[in-house]
Amino acid sequence: MESPPPSPVAAGPLDRDLPLARIALRSTPEARVLEGHGLAFWREGDRSLRDACRDIGRDVESVELALGTARPPTSPPARDWWAVSVDEVLARVVDGHHAFARAMLSRLEEAVSRVVARHGHSHPELIVVEHLVAALHDELLPHFAREEQVLFPFIRHARSSAPALAPASDAAHPTRTMLAQHSGTTELLDELVEATDRFAPPPTASPPHVALYRDLAALREDTLLHITLEDSVLFPRALAASGL
Ligand SMILES: [Fe+2]
Ligand SMILES: [Fe+2]
């Protein structure tokens, strides 16, 4: 006898009223659902699901339904990044996202030069990809260093009872700089999406070429969540704690 189709798990009735960033940061599968429906949570993290769907003519109920079935029922409860300590957010950024991106960029630089050497003549888009990987490296590594050496120590210090290292307003400038650099990074990632045809290797691609595109997609996905965590959680909380 044919078994009945699985009944969809109802999404929280208020998903449509939540900002995109809150939904995306619940879990990677839910972030994928948003992107799959054309909802750019990394650019419009503060916009509600309902408004963001209306903007692009998308049916909000179908997105809610997809969100409700995105995560396996056995997954642990999503972490609420707005409720945990700022130290926990900082640890996720530095030990999670920064460490992942540094390791991945180092791997990608080697991988892309090998793939270009073998296939660049027949796939000139790979040369564009190589330039974009170099540009991401040059943009992200100094950005991480500035966050870790300037902004994050300031945020940690501002939350301690120790005497101020500097006026609270000193956090505003590096925060604005970081936000602007995030926009530059997302533009580079957009160019990468275009150059790789959404990370779809050609049918005749060699295994290293396929692996390169898979790793590029992973770097992009992690970077978009990283930027969302900083833009929508860390920086607003840090500025609020500094009284700005
Ligand atoms: Fe960061
Ligand atoms: Fe950042």
Task: Give the topology.
Blueprint: H1 20-24, H2 28-36, H3 49-56, H4 60-68, H5 86-119, H6 125-158, H7 172-195, H8 207-241
Bound molecules: fe (ii) ion (2 copies).
Residues 93, 97-98, 144, 147, 226, 230 line the site of one fe (ii) ion.
Written description of the protein model:
The protein has 244 residues and is mainly alpha-helical. It has 2 domains: 1-78, Orthogonal Bundle (SP0561-like); 86-241. It is 65% helix and 0% strand. The chain has 8 helices and no strands. It has helices at 20-24, 28-36, 49-56, 60-68, 86-119, 125-158, 172-195, 207-241. The longest helix has 35 residues, at 207-241. The chain is globular, with a radius of gyration of 20 Å. The N and C termini lie far apart (64 Å). Residues 1-13 have low confidence and may be disordered. It binds fe (ii) ion (FE2) (2 copies). Residues 143, 147, 178, 182, 230 line the site of one fe (ii) ion (FE2).
Quick rundown:
The chain has 244 residues and is mostly helical.
Strand content: under 5%
- Please, how many domains? 2
Low-confidence stretches: 1-13
Number of strands: 0
Give a list of the ligands.
fe (ii) ion
Q: Given the helix and strand composition, which structural class is it?
A: mainly alpha
Radius of gyration: 20 Å
**Average pLDDT score:** 89
Instruction: Please give the count of helices.
Output: 8
Summarize the biggest pleated sheet.
Answer: none
Shape descriptor: globular
Helical residue percent band: 55-70%
What order do the SSEs take from the amino end to the carboxyl end, as H and E?
A: HHHHHHHH
How far apart lie the N and C ends? 64 Å
